[in-house]
Amino acid sequence: MKDQKLGGDRLGSGSNMKVEMRNYERSTHDLGFVWKSTMGVGTLVPFMSEVMLPGDSFEINLKNHMMTIPTNGPLFGSFKVQLDVFKCPIRLYMKELHNNQLNIGMNMATLKLPQLRLRAKNPEGLDVDNGINEITKVMVVDDGIYLDDLNIMQKVFYMLNRVAVSDGSYKSWLETVYAHKVSNWVVESPMYVGGLIKELTFDEVISTAEVNNESVNQPLGSLGGRGVMGSKNKGGYINVKADEPCILLGLISLTPRIDYSQGNKWDTNLKTMDDLHKPQLDGIGFQDVITDQMHFLDTRITNTGKVVFKSAGKQPAWINYMTNVNQCRGNFAIDGQEMFMTLNRKYEIETAGESIVGIGDLTTYIDPVKFNDIFSVGKLDTMNFWAQIKVDIKARRKMSAKVMPNL
Question: What is the reported pTM?
Answer without folding.
Answer: 0.78
